[in-house]
Write a structure and sequence with these properties.
heterodimer, A: 250 residues, MetI-like fold, B: alpha/beta, Rossmann fold, 2 domains, six-stranded mixed beta sheet, 9 strands, 34% helix
């Protein structure tokens, strides 16, 4: 059996296992938690395509903007770490602190700073969560560069700037992409939580909106949409990009 | 004498451990010098000091000419093609594109690399990678090429091909310093071979193969091989 076929089969089996588990939970709850069929029926009959598209795009926008900001910050910080040993040590320990800040703390701090109806908190919260993941990957990539390669480039007369552009940055690309897969996944999950706390749109907003109305079919429909969105994004975008970047590894 | 490399009273210490102990050697312009010795004796350190990557603790190293280093593990950048690896130094020097193409064409032809230029290192054979590492140094118009274990990990056919390449470089007047832990790897190239022993690494004998016929060369190497293996 080919790898691709086996992969597709595993995803299909797992999808149906999740549906079965969901149905079992629904039956056990005596119908309080709606099952997959009822949820899908509700989605088709009650939710408009434009509402699905609008709220999905808001969540994607929050995640992508937050992730992009985190990527820019992580690249800048990682490059700064190469300037000298003290900066390297300071940045590594700084990352331990940033990693220790939970998503809830980021959410509350940004809500206090920007208010409940601002579109900024979900974006910055995803930045706060994606940044340490990306920075760890980038630092790992940069540290993986064989010092003998750097010496050789210096023998050719490479400047500090050229070492960054020709050696350190390309060497860290596969690690950054691998980190991005984890970071973007985390960014999407956290963006939804931030939307639930204070936002006027997005999948997280819709989830809590229906929860507050005791409309559990609506809540589960949006939860299902989020899971499908994340799996599709991972399989169709992040995994192929990561595979492509592996050719850069030694 | 027209010496292009002169090493006098060279000492190298790491963490108060002596690696090289009073090494003296001279290399003439256009000469091929072989340096033989067991693993871990400081041969690579000696090459790195001559290349200017490392500094001696004591002693003097004078090099006249442009030095290129071919490290043992090739150190090709995996994200660049063979072509882009070869021209790395030229790119770093902001060499105009036309000159880069001309130099690349010349070196790729000399080392028979034309059909491998678009490959990535991990898709190329060990011999191609080694030739690419040599080309990367040569393309910088080097007069002196320092090769660290150039035949390591190569099969007999590729070893012969590479020996042919080094002989062609020698004919073009490039000074070669070849480090190896196997005496026979230097048989087809070296004009002179110095033996290193230790630790700490020191020069422990020398044979001059210049002006000898093929038979005399082999006889001389056989005699030295017996002495060398009994050391």
């Amino acid at each position: 059996m080919g790898n691709r076929l086996r992969d597709s089969l595993s995803y299909t089996i797992n999808f149906f296992l999740i549906l079965l588990a969901w149905q079992a939970l629904s039956s056990a709850s005596r119908g309080i938690l709606p099952g997959p069929v009822e949820t899908l029926q509700w989605m088709v009959s009650k939710e408009t395509l434009s509402s699905i598209a609008y709220n999905t795009l808001i969540t994607l926008r929050n995640a992508v903007l937050g992730f992009s900001l985190a990527l820019i910050l992580a690249i800048s910080t990682a490059l700064l770490s190469r300037l000298n040993g003290i900066l390297d040590s300071v940045i590594s320990s700084f990352n331990v602190y940033v990693q220790s800040i939970s998503a809830l703390i980021w959410i509350l701090v940004f809500l206090v700073l920007f208010g409940f109806k601002s579109p900024v908190p979900p974006i910055l919260v995803t930045t706060g969560i994606a940044y340490p993941i990306l920075l760890s990957s980038l630092l790992g990539g940069i540290k993986s560069v064989d010092h003998k390669i750097v010496e050789l480039a210096e023998l050719f007369g490479a400047t500090k700037k050229q070492l960054f552009s020709h050696i350190y940055i390309p060497a860290s690309i596969p690690y950054t992409i691998a980190g991005s897969r984890a970071a973007l996944g985390a960014a999407l999950r956290i963006s939804v939580v931030a939307e639930a706390f204070g936002s006027s749109g997005g999948i997280g907003y819709k989830l809590t909106y229906y929860f507050d109305l005791y409309n559990y079919k609506g809540m589960m429909a949006w939860a299902l949409l989020l899971v499908v969105l994340m799996v599709l994004l991972d399989k169709l975008v992040l995994e192929p990009v990561e595979k492509w970047s592996e050719r850069w590894l030694p | 004498m027209n010496h292009t490399i002169v090493v006098r009273g060279l000492y190298k210490e790491y963490n108060s451990q002596t690696i090289l102990d009073n090494v003296n050697l001279e290399v003439e312009k256009g000469e091929t010098l072989g340096i033989v010795g067991p693993n871990g004796i400081g041969k690579t350190t000696l090459l790195r000091i001559i290349a200017g990557i490392e500094h001696p603790t004591r002693g003097e190293v004078n090099v006249r000419g442009k030095v290129g280093l071919v490290p043992q593990d090739d150190l090709l950048l995996p994200w660049k093609t063979i072509k882009d690896n070869i021209i790395l130094g030229l790119i770093l020097h902001n060499t105009p594109r036309g000159i880069i193409e001309e130099k690349l064409r010349r070196v790729a032809s000399l080392l028979e690399l034309e059909e491998h230029l678009s490959k990535y290192p991990k898709n190329a054979s060990g011999g191609t990678r080694r030739k690419a590492a040599i080309s990367r140094a040569l393309v910088m118009d080097t007069d002196i090429l320092l090769l660290d274990e150039p035949y390591a990990g190569l099969d007999l056919k590729i070893t012969q091909s590479l020996a042919g390449v080094l002989n062609r470089l020698k004919e073009r007047g490039v000074t070669l310093v070849i480090v190896s832990h196997k005496l026979w790897e230097l048989a087809s190239n070296a004009d002179r071979i110095i033996f290193m022993n230790g630790p700490p690494g020191r020069v422990d004998g020398e044979i001059d193969l210049r002006g000898l016929s093929e038979e005399e060369r082999i006889a001389r190497l056989l005699g030295e091989a017996r002495r060398y293996t009994s050391m």
